[in-house]
C-alpha cells in the first residue's frame, strides 16, 4: 500500500497526501489513520 500511495503522489507531483476516512465511529476512524501512519 505504501508504494501505491507514493506512486499516486508522484504521478500528481505532490509532496504530501491527505487521507480522509468515512467510518461509522471515532474508534474505527482512529484505527484507519493508525494503519496508514504505520506505513510511514
Number of helices: 2
**Largest beta-sheet characterization:** none
The outline comes out as elongated
Overall SS class: mainly alpha
| Total tally of structural domains | 1
Instruction: Write the element-wise H/E pattern from the N-terminal end onward.
Output: HH
Structural description of this entry:
This protein has 40 residues and is mainly alpha-helical. It has helices spanning 2-12, 26-39. The termini are close together. The model has no long low-confidence stretch (mean pLDDT 94).
Q: What topology emerges from the helices and strands here?
A:
Elements: H1 2-12, H2 26-39
List keywords for this structure.
mainly alpha, elongated, 40 residues, single chain
Provide a concise account of the structure shown.
The chain has 40 residues and is mainly α. The protein has 2 helices and no strands.
